[in-house]
Design a protein that fits this description.
Elements: H1 2-14, E1 30-31, H2 32-45, H3 53-63, H4 67-77, E2 80-81, E3 88-90, E4 96-98, E5 110-111
Parallel strand pairs: 1-5
Antiparallel strand pairs: 2-3, 3-4
Helix pairs in contact: 3-4
């Protein structure tokens, strides 16, 4: 019985529907340009956290796309979505990919650039 449940769980993991992250707040008010700088720094260093570069590239493309395109990207890349908001994912080899919320959505305390 455990095998049947395991195979269903794995199949469901690949097909998990992506959703937008819940609203979140940055520790201090942040401008759009500061947020973009944080995102660029994360994506520039992400491959150094482990995993495969092509999976990081797919996750970046998914993070920057609308939900339906993001779903197609992670499905085609073989990404296993642990959390529906993409904060925790795995590749087919079991490598873990953790994405901070600031690369997935804007904070509630985003302010205008001056």
């Amino acid at each position: 019985m455990g095998c049947v449940g395991s195979s269903q769980a794995k199949g469901d993991g690949n097909a998990k529907k992506i959703r937008k992250p819940k609203p979140w707040k940055h520790p201090q008010p942040i401008t759009k340009s500061q947020l973009m700088q944080l995102r660029d720094e994360f994506w520039d260093t992400a491959p150094h956290y482990g995993g495969r570069k092509e999976i990081w590239d797919a996750l970046r493309a998914a993070a920057e796309a609308d939900l339906s395109l993001a779903q197609a990207i992670v499905d085609s890349a073989g990404v296993i979505v642990q959390n529906a908001d993409l904060t925790v994912c795995y590749d087919e080899r079991g490598a873990k990919y953790e994405l901070p919320k600031y690369v997935l959505s804007e904070p509630t305390n985003l302010i205008q650039d001056t």
